[in-house]
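From the pipeline queue, job 12 of 40. The input is one protein chain; the requested action is below.

Action: predict structure.
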Amino acid sequence: MTRNQIATIIAIIFHAIGLVGMAFINRELFVKATPYHLLLMAALLFYTQRRINWAFLLFFIVCFIAGFLVEWLGTSTGMLFGNYAYGTALGYKYKEVPLLIGVNWFIIMYCCGCTIQMFFSRLAAATGDEQIKTSKLVRWLSVVLDGALLAVIIDWFLEPAAIKLGYWRWLGSGEVPWFNYSSWFVVSALLLTIFQWLPFGRHNKFALHLLLIQVMFFLLVKVFL
């Protein structure tokens, strides 16, 4: 089996175990395992990356630091995403923000960027459109803007399940403000610009598989838990 196949099987198994465990065994116990689950998914992305060079590591570091900082600014001021607070499910917190939230930002940005990059390449091959094949500007805009839109859609899927599992809670009325999604789009577009600028491989099938697995997982959490 290829690395992508091995990683996909592992991801499916662990998401399924988490879902079954929360539904039928001990919800609190399995929710507390979330930090280890996040680290495992990030490790699988590293495992399936064809070549880990300085640029890939830099992108991870940038996502980790930027993700933590925007969440710290968000929880401290309510300016970026609205008034919200993190629970204990995501592990150790510094300044009331889980350190692992930066890992989550990396996972989402990398998966969204790779997914749009692969879709773009397949579209160019399928249509035979020379402009799509050769235009660097079109490719950049597609990955940055479409990738940011995809990240917003992922966040929209994630919100109800994350609230149910106690990852975070919205203060006041408890409703997710719409400017949360606009801020997500802007921050994601900036990080995906860096994703495009840095010279590392972006063809990772497992990134697409993980994105689909996570969407299905959070939909099932929303419906059944």
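Job complete. The mean pLDDT is 90.
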